[in-house]
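RETRY 2/3 - previous attempt timed out on the joint model. Re-submitting the same 976-residue input unchanged.
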Amino acid sequence: MNYMKHVSSSFASSQDGTPSVPRTFVGSLRDSFLLHITIISIALIFRIFHLISRRFRNATDSFDSIYQFRSGHSVRRLIFSNNRIATRSGPCPSPDFEIHFIDLLGTLAYIAKYPNDPITLIMENKIVQIGNLYYLYRFGYYCGLCESIIGNLGHRRSVVVGITRSKETK
Amino acid sequence: MKSVCETNMMSISGKDIGTVALEHFPRLIRLRKRLLDARPAICVERARLFTEYFLSNGFDKAKPVMRQANALAYTLDNIPTPIFEDELIVGSTTRHRLGVPLFPEFTGMTIFPELPTINRRDHDPVSIEDSEIDLLANKIFPFWRDINVHEYVRREGNNPFSFQVFERLVFYINSKSNGISHIIPDYSSVVHRGLQHIIDEAAIHESKAGCSDAVEFYRAVQVSLKAVIRLALRYSQACRDRASEEAPSRRDELLEIAAFLERVPARPAATLHEALQAVWITQTALHQENTNAALSFGRLDQYLYPLYKNDVANGIIDDMRACELIGSFFVKMGDHTILTPRAAHKLLGGASTDQAITLGGMKPDGSDGVNELTFVMLKAMELLSLREPNVGARWHISTDPQYMSALIKTIHRTGAAPALYNDEEVTAALTQNAVSLEDARDYGIVGCVETISAGRTMGMTGAILFNLASVLELTLNDGIHPQSGTRIGPKTGALSRFSSYDEFIEAFKEQLGHLAGLAVDGNNRFAEAHAILHPTPLLSSLIEGTFASGKDVTRGGAKYNSSGVAIVGLADVTDSLSALKHLVFSPRPLVTPDELSAALKNNYNGYDRARSLLLNKAPKYGTDDPAADRIAASLVELIHGVFTRYQNPRSGRYHVGYWSMTMHAGVFAYVGALPNGRLKGTPLASGATPVSGVAVKGPTASLASTSALNSAYMANCIANNHKFSRSMFAQPGKIVLFEKLVESYFRMGGMQVQFNIHDKQTLLDARDNPDNYRDLLVRVSGYSAYFCDLSRQMQDEIIDRTEDVI
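RETRY 2/3 succeeded.
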């Protein structure tokens, strides 16, 4: 269509303007380090919950997919395969879903507060995504499950503390 | 029993309309309280049943209309049929008193990430059981992974650029990703002909149909309508079952309702009560087929009037009973709400389901349609002061002065509703967009403020929500979106390269044409996806034109086939262009393009002088300044011209309007600083309303500016928001002045206006102590909402709106 003649066919690869956070060598290095650490940490957390929570296992088992995360030129994958969760460095040709971090630090700050709200990350231009959003939502769901399980543990502990206190009061 | 027919229109059963209070209706008090106290709960039944059907029977791609009809029938045959206490109108959208239905084939999946924590999120917590979460996560959502309309558009179009831009949300939103909505079914036919009559008609068409697609359509219609009749019979049985457990008075009520449901909606309604029951049970069925957004009732006071009149004449009801029935019906409308992920709280926080009803106005022959039932409905709405229904009242030059007076008093009492519409302007806008005069006069309000010919239009009035401020931002930045550094628009040059205002406007036109083209491309792709994935035979059976054409509404079967565009940011862009024209590109510029460019990049930090000049020295829209009004008028003409270049896949036109829901304070406010002095991230002006704080010359000047816009270019209507302090009306004569102000606005050519009448202190207190103001009703930029449900940004935007004084 003629009104699209000026633009590239891919949103994620069309950043020919000035990004809001200019990348320096140090910035790129930092983001690369953070990307790998973040995805490795997420994989680790998911594996722990896979071990301790039947609900998390039910949700992840039989889910086979590859997520690819990019920050600048750095790429790392998170792989769900054969009831296992793994992570690898480098790209693969056909991931199920790809996330480009535009503002990795901002993303990390936000997901520390709201781990299962990926839509805000899109709205606030912190990430650009490629692929079927189902995968993004499912990924968010896993983060939400972890948060919920932790929340329930906290809730249980507070119940125990509450009972202990009430006994002490008596 | 005495009726208003025998007395006058300002009374209800002999009581002065002003003295009838909610205390006269104990049942309504109880129903209202239970609704307001109810915490919303997700209901997975509809999603479960649709998924179950397709898992068992396959997703037949060869016969999509029949496939959807069969799935709907399966759902209606198995969906729970709860009966709640005190109800006079039964039928429930979900199994909960206040439920949230899920539509995984549309945007229902956006809630997927939040399901485990949605019970305790800080905004709009929603109940859901763990077993339901697991069902959604492990069975329902996986089934819809590849066959939801959003993914279909992405995949089939090879991730088109228009789709990618839509997914950024700040430029435009293609609302069809959320399903078919914003439409008025022909409820007059449900009430006066009955579904069996429509089934018989479909059967006759089927026997004469020449092509297999048409045969499939007529059969699908019959399957769908028969399922609605069976649903009514299941509710009838549920009433009988429940009656056996109830005290005698309630038992009699339930048995009476059970008897109604054996007749309606299959056959024509004989009484007002039957008619309301027929309409509501059909609405609940339609909500299993299509998303629960802005499925509106049209001219309720017109098509129910013959039954009301008959009931009164036969002594079956009086106006107090009519008010109770109507009130019960209005409460039922609030039995469901929309599901929004956390991110959408900024977008749609506090949004109702926008089921609009229309009161008064001209009949198709041009005579006044206001009747006694109009007053009863107005009273019921006032007494309940709920966000549903969204009531729109029509005005025309020969409107009964008593009716106008009642409207003004109701607005004053509720502080927010109804919104007012000028028949002359709306009718002119529709007729100039290919709607016949008779059909145009028979318009109804749909969704927020949109106007379509009721029962015969597939309008999708909210199909495109379009951020005009983004167009300006792209023009200022050579087509690049500054926040992401991404090229969205064509290269039209940086601000410092323009040597004149005319050059800038040419660039603006190019960016506008480009972004509009993308938005239309996105919408058309979604429309095509619906025709393939989600035809809607039940809704189609209630839209005029589909039987003649033998087509579903998603395939162009309706008599009128428009698509709606809602432009957001008109006033900000007008004021910005005015500032560019008069201060930047003037012969003696007060701010240079380079200085402005730097100021915008820095969000005016360190550029106080420039900001002060831009804020105070340029002509502003809303001050009755011809220089600014001309810019606004030319923008409206330009935008109309751009969108009317396109057609939707149903060969319909794009109708442009100016309303914003909460978008102006939500996601569209993510645009950067603008040349009118607006700072990055602060709310844009709502609808067609001037920028807050700008209309310093008072409401008359502000309304004059808005009325100068040509209604013919605004067929999708406008939201013109105004705010008065409640305490101002304590002064004698102010209500009369208020009425005169509205009439003058309409006589000047104003199209629509809506009000908030609250003291600033009340709003501030409500913001800080929400528990004390649970039912405080406000007008956003379209629909009515409970103030405390709104996002903080939206609350502040309403608080900061210009407070008019008369």
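Chain B touches chain A through 58 residues (CB under 8 Å). Closing ticket.
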